[in-house]
Amino acid sequence: MKWIRYYLSFLxxxxxxxxxxxxxxDYANQWPGFxxxxxxxxxxxxxxxxxxxxxxxxxxxxxxxxxxxxxSCPVIWDSFLFVTTSVNTKNTxxxxxxxxxxxxEANDSAIHxxxxxxxxxxxxxxxxxxxxxxxxxxxxxxxxxxQANCTPATDGKYLVVHFGxxxxxxxxxxxxxxxxxxxxxxxxxxxxxxxxxxxxASSPVIYEDKIVVQCDIPKTPYITTxxxxxxxxxxxTSRGDEVSTWCTPAIYSGNGNPMVIAxxxxxxxxxxxxxxxxxxxxxxxxxxxxxAPVVANDLIYLxxxxxxxxxxxxxxxxxxxDITLAxxxxxxxxxxxxxxxxxxxxxxxxxxxxxxxxxxxxxxxxCFDALTGQEKYKESLKEAFTASGIAAGxxxxxxxxxxxxxxxxxxxxxxxxxxxxxxxxxMATPAISGNTLFFRTQHxxxxxx
Length: 449
Description:
By secondary structure, the protein is mainly beta. It has a single domain (32-448), classed as YVTN repeat-like/Quinoprotein amine dehydrogenase (Methylamine Dehydrogenase, Chain H). The chain has one helix and 33 strands. Strands 14-15-16-17-21 form a five-stranded mixed β-sheet, with no helix packed on it. The protein has a four-stranded antiparallel β-sheet with strand order 1-33-32-31, with no helix packed on it. Strand 16 and strand 17 form a beta hairpin. Residues 6-23 have low confidence and may be disordered.
């Protein structure tokens, strides 16, 4: 009888391990939030197109018009594709793209409809749409931003969408509202010009049964976790004297004790996921960061660029306490390597097949060895960029603001494979599902197969 008990225990253990492995593999093939699974920016084993053309229809699977203005990225689970937008009811939306340094705010004084769309990823057909909120926006935006900057997040059952000052919403896949939460006025802007509002852009992150939201706003900045099913606050931790940022947080779970990682200027930090307690802190960032942290190679990569600082860091997840670098150092006990200047202001770095690709707003791409920080090449794509890069099948995809998609071969030498026109402004980071690329432009969702 004893051997039967051992056998049954082994069988149950095997089933549980198999279910966990299946769930992890399934998650790895979804695109559940900003930059895909775990925020890494790529999927394995995808065979995506090198050349395509939205004007001629080459490799275009479908093209669906989405009204309004939104820089949020598409997210995908199985056959469901979700995207958000903000529709100005007077049809007076404005968007100013390109390289410029103005701090101007857009005029959004008309009533807006803050909308959520669910599409069939295979056909582009709209399955349902919902108006989460209707009214005059409670906070302003930069002339280059939108009122729907935050990318949704999903776990395959729930969809969480964030409209900044207009609130946080949770839907099921049939479009039923599960809960909503007023997060207050979230109006980040340049700390050098108090009162100027550039719009909120940090995307929510789902990890197991929790939602992580980073709110680096001018007064009382904080980071918080909420219960996914109910929206109940679990913990809320002050970000101290942090200035406004537009960074999406990340999760490190490699040591069995999950950690929330938040990029920033004064407070680049790791927090205990269960309690919100600060584990480590780094204070060498650029002063208005937007890039998200990236976990790869059992390291945490951080990137920012504004003001006099533009660093890239590779941090050990075992970091404790204040790990801020001395002014004359590029590494210490917990920082494996770093560069003082050369980081990106807007784009999250892409770590893929052993290399870190850093794209800047002026189109300069720098390739580093991801483990050592050794620079491999530096090339210019000679356009303005806001979207972060993604990768699949040994290819890198960089989307310019003018809607040209540059396809670059991965590796230590620069090789441009193609430049593909979408013929529409492109501010959002693309998505991948199966062998299909999904681009969100100013007016359309475009599937490239």
